[in-house]
Amino acid sequence: MTGGQADNLDREQLIALTRWFADMGVDCAVSNEPHDRFAEAPPAEQARATGQSAKSQGSTAQGSMAQSANGRQRDRMHQPRGGLGGFQHDAPPPPDQAAQSAREAAAAAQDLDALRSALEDFDGCALKRSASRLVFADGNPQADIMFVGEAPGADEDRQGKPFVGRAGQLLDRMLAAIDLDRYTVYIANVVPWRPPGNRTPTPQETAICLPFVKRQIELVNPKVLVCIGGSSAQTLLGIREGITRARGKWYDYDMGGKTIRAIAMLHPAFLLRSPARKRDAWTDLLALKEFLSAQD
């Protein structure tokens, strides 16, 4: 979209466009021209460099020293950086080694706090290096019902909780429609770190994180598991069909020697894009409510 086209939009259209960009994973503004951010010094360093340059104008020797210092500064700026949104020096281990490490760390966790600590210390998934924070879970860990989605989005990455964006707000309304809320359910994701740009996690990333979410389900020990969206259903239930075919059906989930019932539902983000399918979601919610009533 050109600047002229944007100027012709009214306030409501601009708000709708901004929301669409957010849903698509666009969470920062960029210009039309590329910029080498690594070559740009932070403001404080730029100010110091400017001051050094002004002081060195009266002396050729001092000017040479300042030039050398600036060269070293540029070299430092081009080196990989750690921290929030930066780059780590250490590459993740090979996938097989990472998956084995994940299985061992997950199996060793005796409670949810230990599992969360194990995830925070785990460096086998490259997504951890681009995400802002771990998105572990939300809700009641003693709940009879556990919801598992695919992966966090931009809002979840900022707040550290699953399903807090627009899709999460719709999920809250869906829960309220059958007399549930975040105090009576437990919510997590298959992958606990946000993929860049809200892209779909790769099969390799999902496989590495899978032991953790499976152990999370075991520790919560719910009576029923709800897989939100096709990716979650395919990963946890081993089905191959798409979510529009899998939704509303009951499955058996093997929870470490114990079998519980599981159901697949349409993802709230899908319902935001396809509101006509909310009727299907309501049918599935009623089936879930009926199952829970039979357990009382």
Description:
- The protein has helices at 3-7, 11-23, 43-55, 60-77, 95-108, 112-121, 127-130, 154-159, 166-177, 203-220, 230-237, 243-246, 268-273, 278-295; strands at residues 138-139, 145-149, 186-189, 224-228, 250-254, 259-265.
- The chain has 14 helices and six strands.
- Mean pLDDT is 82; it is low at 40-89.
- It has a domain at 95-295: Uracil-DNA Glycosylase, subunit E (3-Layer(aba) Sandwich).
- The chain is globular and about 50 Å long.
- The chain has a six-stranded mixed sheet, sandwiched between helices.
- The relative contact order is 0.10.
- It is of the alpha/beta class and 296 residues long.
- α3 runs antiparallel to α4 (60-77).
- Helix content is 50%, strand content 9%.
Give the helices and strands, then pairings.
Blueprint: H1 3-7, H2 11-23, H3 43-55, H4 60-77, H5 95-108, H6 112-121, H7 127-130, E1 138-139, E2 145-149, H8 154-159, H9 166-177, E3 186-189, H10 203-220, E4 224-228, H11 230-237, H12 243-246, E5 250-254, E6 259-265, H13 268-273, H14 278-295
Parallel strand pairs: 2-3, 2-4, 4-6
Antiparallel strand pairs: 1-3, 5-6
Helix pairs in contact: 3-4, 5-10
Task: Provide a short characterization of the protein structure.
With 296 residues, this protein is an alpha/beta fold.
The CA-CA distance between the termini, in Å, is 55 Å
Overall, the morphology is globular
CATH class of the domain at 95-295: Alpha Beta
Largest sheet, order of strands side by side? 1-3-2-4-6-5
Structural class: alpha/beta
Radius of gyration: 24 Å
What is the beta-strand fraction?
5-15%
**Quick one: how many beta strands?**
6
Give the helix tally: 14
Using the 3D structure, state the CATH architecture of the domain at 95-295. Answer: 3-Layer(aba) Sandwich
- Which whole number gives the mean pLDDT? 82
The biggest beta sheet is recorded as: 6 strands, mixed
Could you give me the name of the CATH homologous superfamily of the domain at 95-295?
Uracil-DNA glycosylase-like domain
